[in-house]
Write a structure and sequence with these properties.
CATH topology of the largest domain: ABC transporter transmembrane region fold
Strand content: 5-15%
Shape: elongated
CATH class of the largest domain: Mainly Alpha
CATH architecture of the largest domain: Up-down Bundle
Number of domains: 3
Structural class: alpha/beta
Helix content: 55-70%
Number of helices: 19
Distance between the termini: 45 Å
């Protein structure tokens, strides 16, 4: 798996290099300032007169320059963080948009969690932790060299104590890293549970499932709490070691320095310089190991975002074509088989053809593979074996976006945007003439049998329908989805149980409209009600993942086979058309 985030980090490295350079300048200013003070102290102790004005001007000048450099360094850090985050988020969103549907299906809570909490962690890593690590390393190197130049024995005192705790730090880092991965995985699961609670709120309350769902939340929350207890225990240990690291070298090295002054090996001025420098060195020395631990924990989020960026993309070629010619074969499927990841075979040796202008129905019992077959026709799934040709060319050779321009799709589960009715129907439209666009919307809604309902609303077509069409009934959502498909005016229309939520009168209107649809549009319907498909040109009957019968209504009824059994099972003497 390509580490695309690392590629972005390398691409943007000049920005963080500027930050590093400015950090070095700040450290050098500190060293220069300590040298000036050290020299001044030694001159005073030797009885020499010093230029106080020059000393104050030099010190003030260094302070002004350090403020300016620190300001520029902050800008460089934030500029780096913002740019990397932007590219990572952009890549992640584009990757999700082009992902193979089966790779993200059902994992939306986890995906959202990664795009929110994990990106926030990435922000912390880039704007705080990584800059701190770079700044600490540069400060330790620059100030450490200066202390070594003052007296190597003081430097050795620092160098001996620091490496002692490195193995301990690594142990703590590994533990915290493991707990961080576990914590994020559990938060993903909690997000999924909460998402289920929100999406299924009506079912939960109708069936009295609140206690069961509460228990699911409580169990996952308890797991997260236990994980946090363990993580906090290791972090407390890390903070304790930080304190030890911060004060032990300070005491040891101060005693060494004092003895060196008494032994007349270093001057009082050099001791003063050491105190100043060590004051700036102790914090980076003690904090660096644990900022590295923090970085390793945050890299869990980087890995998770990288997985989204590298999610398997939809396959596609470069072939494009215009609308199908008259009397041409639009769809040709030969020996199509398909299995999901669990290995269960859903489709087996499916043969299917559709010509220009044909009205075709696919019928069969629940779970026989009808919807899965539609997913293959739309390119949401790839067949395990067999051939699928669109307009005479293998679907794998098509540019996936151009292929879908030829298809209007009405899914079984309707999705609507939290926008106006008009915008929901015309989404993606390139029509520049707003009046023509609106007339086209109205015409589509008339055909879908929902125009009168829309006009009865106070704001008509400008009515905002809420999240996923929350203000509409199931039948109204379905009719809007049909209107959206009609508006697109694609040469192929796929409808997955388009009248399942409609009353009989509306169903008759839509059935008549579809029967009178433009003659060169190929329409394929998965039928929920068999009365919808009695007058289509061809009916394919599916059973256990394969097509067992085909023909028109009269032909299939004469066979007294699977179709006849289905028809008789849902059609009563009173003419009531029940659902399959």
């Amino acid at each position: 798996m390509k580490n695309k985030i690392m590629q972005i980090l390398i691409k943007k490295s000049p920005m963080i290099a500027v930050f590093g350079l400015l950090s070095f300048v700040l450290s050098r200013i500190l060293v220069i300032g300590s040298d000036i003070i050290s020299e001044a102290v030694d001159k005073v102790l030797e009885g020499n007169i010093i230029n106080i004005k020059y000393l104050m001007m030099s010190t003030f000048g260094l302070i002004i320059v350090s403020f300016l450099v620190a300001y520029l360094r902050t800008i460089a850090r934030e500029f780096y963080s913002i740019n990397v985050q932007y590219e990572c988020r952009d890549l992640a969103v584009k990757s999700i948009q082009g992902a193979n549907c089966s790779k993200i299906n059902g994992g939306y809570g986890a995906v959202i969690n990664r795009l929110t909490s994990d990106v926030n962690d990435l922000n912390t890593l880039l704007s705080e932790i990584l800059p701190d690590v770079i700044s600490y390393i540069i400060t330790i190197a620059t100030v450490g060299i200066s202390i070594f130049n003052i007296e190597w024995r003081i430097f050795i005192g620092i160098a001996v104590i620091f490496p002692v705790v490195v193995p301990i730090n690594n142990f703590i880092a590994r533990k915290i890293n493991t707990l961080a991965k576990s914590r994020r995985g559990r938060y993903d699961e909690l997000s999924e549970i909460v998402s289920d609670n929100i999406d299924g709120v009506e079912i939960c309350r109708t069936y009295g499932l609140e206690n069961i769902l509460d228990e699911r939340v409580n169990i996952k929350a308890a797991e997260i709490l236990h994980n946090e207890y363990s993580r906090n225990a290791y972090q407390a240990l890390a903070q304790f070691i930080t304190s030890i690291l911060k004060w032990t070298p300070s005491v040891v090295c101060s005693v060494i320095a004092l003895n060196l002054v008494i032994a007349d090996i270093i001057t009082v001025g050099q001791l003063m310089a050491f105190i100043i420098l060590f004051g700036k060195l102790s914090s980076p020395l003690s904090e660096l190991p644990f900022r590295i631990i923090d970085a390793r924990e945050m890299f869990v989020s980087v890995e998770r975002i990288n997985k989204i960026i590298n999610v398997e993309q939809e396959a596609g070629g470069s072939y494009t074509s215009d609308k199908p010619q008259e009397n041409s074969r639009v769809i040709d499927c030969r020996d199509i088989t398909f299995s999901y990841d669990d290995g269960k075979e859903v489709l087996k040796d499916v043969d299917f053809t559709a010509n220009t202008g044909e009205k075709i129905a696919i019928v069969g019992g629940s779970g026989c593979g009808k919807t899965t077959f539609f997913k293959i026709l739309c390119g949401f799934e790839q067949p395990g074996s067999g051939e699928y040709d669109l307009l005479g060319h293998n679907f794998k050779d098509w540019n996936i976006h151009d292929a879908r321009k030829l298809i209007s799709f009405v899914p079984q589960n309707v999705f609507l945007f939290p926008d106006t009715i008009a915008e929901n129907i015309a989404y993606g439209s390139n029509e520049e003439n707003s009046e023509y666009r609106m007339n086209k919307v109205i015409a589509a809604c008339r055909k879908a049998g929902i125009h009168d309902k829309i006009m009865s609303l106070p704001q008509g077509y400008e009515t905002v329908i809420g999240e996923r069409g929350a203000t509409l009934s199931g039948g109204e959502k379905q009719r809007l989805a049909i209107a959206r498909a009609i508006y697109k005016d694609a040469p192929i229309m796929l409808m997955d149980e388009p009248t399942s939520a409609l009353d009989e009168d509306t169903e008759k209107i839509i059935s008549t409209t579809l029967a009178e649809d433009v003659k060169d549009r190929t329409t394929i319907i998965i039928a929920h009600r068999l009365s919808t498909v009695k007058n289509v040109d061809m009916i394919y009957v599916m059973d256990k993942g394969t097509i067992v019968e085909s023909g028109n209504h009269e032909t299939l009824m004469a066979k007294c086979g699977v179709y006849t059994a289905l028809y008789n099972s849902v059609y009563t003497n009173g003419g009531y058309n029940a659902d399959i």
